[in-house]
TrEMBL record:
This is Arsenate reductase. Gene3D superfamilies: Glutaredoxin. It catalyses: [glutaredoxin]-dithiol + arsenate + glutathione + H(+) = glutathionyl-S-S-[glutaredoxin] + arsenite + H2O. Keywords: Arsenical resistance, Oxidoreductase. The keyword Oxidoreductase applies. NCBIfam families: arsC (TIGR00014). The lineage of its organism: Bacteria, Pseudomonadati, Pseudomonadota, Alphaproteobacteria, Rhodospirillales.
């Protein structure tokens, strides 16, 4: 299975993660999630199959997360919110056949390569 990066090119951590993956000799499948947002079903599958929780997928520091009161929200509510507002997707998220992680700090990506 290829390495997939849910990427925001405006985010320096996301850009650095992409560079780290490439330096390791892997060309990832890059999904610019703000241009092509994952569906609610894709988010649920990502969480279910890659060892990520809905909360792992949430960018809790995004002001909109606070505005929507997502701190204590259910997994279903979090996935609904991310599907409706892709800016809420944590970044960067990397998946491979070894699982999935929100790679902050970026060195966590090594566990997936």
């Amino acid at each position: 299975m290829p390495v997939t990066l849910y990427h925001n090119p405006k985010c320096s951590t996301s850009r650095n993660t992409l560079a780290l993956i490439r330096e390791a000799g892997t060309e990832p499948r890059v999904i610019e999630y703000l241009k092509t947002p994952p569906t609610r079903a894709e988010l649920a599958a990502l969480a279910a199959t890659k060892g990520l929780s809905a909360r792992d997928l949430l960018r809790a520091k995004e002001p909109l997360a606070k505005e929507l009161n997502l701190a204590g929200a259910s997994d279903a509510a979090i996935l609904d919110a991310i599907a409706e507002h892709p800016i809420l997707l944590n970044r960067p998220i990397v998946t491979s056949d070894k699982g999935g992680r929100a790679t902050r700090p970026i060195e966590l990506v090594h566990e997936l390569l």
